[in-house]
Design brief:
This protein is 35% helix and 16% strand. With 382 residues, it is of the alpha/beta class. It has two domains: 2-115 and 317-367, NAD(P)-binding Rossmann-like Domain (Rossmann fold); 135-315, 3-Layer(aba) Sandwich (Rossmann fold). It has a seven-stranded mixed beta sheet with strand order 11-10-9-12-13-15-14. It has a six-stranded mixed beta sheet with strand order 1-4-5-6-16-17. α1 packs parallel to α2 (43-49), α1 runs parallel beside α12 and α5 (97-105) packs across α14. It is globular, with a radius of gyration of 22 Å.
């Protein structure tokens, strides 16, 4: 177990409390010295739990049968791992398909948490949802800190302070947590998603579901994600959302499309109509951004609106992010051990396997590496 080579990453893949689960599953656990410090765990805790402490990153990886690096290994890590080793992590395999291909070329096997199927049995292994929960929570706190007003309704001798109006775009795990957190802080919350199926969840949290005049038939994939939409659909969507956002104090965007760039829901023209002093938190900034003005890890000003490209929310909550990720990882590796290291024996393992025996195993990753031409493309008669 080693931390990411990127110094800005604070998470660690395993916490001392889960070392015992790995030992019980037949693994020997080695942790790079200092790996857990930024998440609040000293080397002594790992030693007490039964893990060995390694001083050298290269030597640690060179002797690894399974490597877990939060969130994923870089090229130097891949070069240090022996052929046949297994990599497990948040590999972002669709957006980073070339990285998966490099893993395969190195003769490594890789499992990506993003590909874990959305079935009830897999919920305890769903690291993607675990991290999204924290991101949604952190987004609201960042917004509350930047907004020049308080969130709750407050009646005072000096007058009544109206509650902040928060709008959430994209009601996945992060969006739902953002709604719940904003409501707990006393804001008036509304939310929008192209999937009508999430209306009940939105309303159960005390928020208003925003309805737009759009045809959303067949918009959801079998895995529960929204499909990529046409330019005309997005144009009409932005047109109708513009009036909604103009009345918002805070906008939190968390809309993602599996296997594609995040849709741009908020244009510069829409920002110009928002109230000066309002805040937009873009949780999709690292995936291209739901806001045209956002940039990962940066805060920019557009017409008096603070646009925050929040790309490291999970890392900022390193203690709990590591605790959740560690439990997901330990259960995943325990399942792998139960199946005799054979992914074909379990649906969860089989679907999350993205590289093995020198080849890319995921259809979705292969589609990114070798995209199929659009109908008529390359046909002079089309």
């Amino acid at each position: 177990m080693a931390p990411a080579a990127d110094d800005s990453e604070r998470r660690v893949a395993i916490v001392p409390g889960d070392v015992g689960m790995l030992l019980d599953s037949g693994y020997e656990v080695s942790v790079l010295s200092g790996a857990g410090e930024r998440a609040g765990h000293a080397d002594a805790e790992y030693r007490s739990a039964g893990a060995a402490i390694a001083a050298d990153r290269g030597q640690l990886l060179a002797g690894a049968a399974v490597a877990a690096i939060a969130p994923y290994p870089d090229e130097g890590d891949l070069a240090a791992l022996p052929a046949g080793a297994t990599v497990v992590g948040l590999l972002d395999p669709i957006a980073r398909a070339g990285h998966v291909a490099a893993i395969a070329e190195r003769g490594l096997r890789a499992f990506a948490f993003e590909m874990v199927p959305r079935i009830s049995r897999a919920q305890s292994l769903d690291a993607l949802s675990a991290m999204a929960t924290l991101a949604g929570y952190k987004a609201v706190l960042v917004a509350a800190n930047r907004l020049p007003q308080i969130f709750p309704l407050l009646m005072t001798a000096a007058g009544t302070l109206a509650p902040a109006k928060v709008t959430v775009l994209g009601v996945g795990v992060a969006g739902l947590q953002a709604i719940a957190t904003a409501r707990r802080l006393g804001a008036r919350v509304s939310a929008y998603d192209v999937r009508e199926e999430v209306r009940e969840q939105v309303e159960s949290l005390g928020a208003q579901f925003i309805e737009l005049d759009l045809d959303v038939a067949g918009i959801q994939t079998a895995g529960g994600y929204a499909r990529d939409q046409s330019a005309e659909f997005l144009r009409r969507q932005r047109e109708q959302l513009g009036a909604v956002l103009a009345d918002a104090d805070v906008v939190i965007t968390a809309a993602l499309v599996a296997g594609a760039r995040a849709p741009v829901l908020v244009t510069d023209e829409m920002l110009a109509k928002m109230q000066p002093g309002s805040v937009l938190i873009d949780l999709a900034a690292a995936k291209g951004g739901n806001c045209a003005a956002s940039a990962p890890g940066q805060t920019v000003d557009r017409a008096g609106v603070a646009v925050v490209g929040l790309s490291d929310a999970e890392s900022q909550l390193a203690a709990h992010a590591s605790q959740m990720y560690s439990r997901n990882l330990a259960r995943f590796l325990a399942l792998l051990a139960e199946c005799g290291d054979d992914p074909s024996k379990d649906e969860i393992l089989a679907e999350s396997l993205v590289a093995a025996e020198g080849s890319v195993r995921s259809r979705m990753v292969l589609e990114q590496l070798c995209p199929q031409p659009s109908p008529g493309e390359g046909d002079p008669d089309a």
